Amino acid sequence: MKLFSFWRSLATYRVRIALNLKGVAPDEVIQVNLMKGEQRAASYRAINPMMAIPALIDGDGPALFESLAIIEYLDETHPAPPLLPRDPRGRARVRGLAQLVACDSHPLIVPRVREYLAHEFKFDEAAVNTWCRHWHTAALTALEAHLQDKATGRYCHGDSITMADICLASQAAGAKFFNIDTAPFPTFSRIVAALSQIDAFARAHPTKQPGAPAAA
Length: 216
Prior knowledge:
The chain is 51% helix and 6% strand. It is built from nine helices and four strands, in the order E-H-E-H-E-E-H-H-H-H-H-H-H. It is globular and about 45 Å long. By secondary structure, the chain is α+β, with helices and mostly antiparallel strands. It folds into two domains: 80 residues, Glutaredoxin (3-Layer(aba) Sandwich); 120 residues, Glutathione S-transferase Yfyf (Class Pi), Chain A, domain 2. Strands 2-1-3-4 form a four-stranded mixed β-sheet, covered by helices on one side.
């Protein structure tokens, strides 16, 4: 198994958490430096034409791509512990919370979007950061509202870790990168604090990865 990774990638952070929870260690972790544009190299474009990470190669066949799809693949191929509830409504809720982060918020602040804003619309660094903080905060506001549901327990959905918690952790890491105060979101903050004490989450954190600066 090969994982294409970068320390700051929030999407890869999600996959690392899932791998840790499942007790699966890739045979090789290949660094793709997004800040240096290595994702645009022809060799990587052959692996993922979207030029995004993560990508996961497991056995024969083409690479798997998109973090949530990879996480569900891992959940199906390594069923314990399960990352989705058994009941249809619960699975829909967990997927919805996960997609709010991975599909609605995160894609708006990735490097290729920030670069496009700077190069095509001449946003300066302050304007780009304002853009990122806006979309992060919008997601945090929505997550906090959804987490008021009675289905929330110790974690996002009941008292077992699910794919939603994996995405919540990545949202928290992104908020830290962009200096967003999460104190106004107490349920979100409570769950993130609980997750941070779990080894699978702590070991996967961006600041613990190769290449991360000491004060990331």
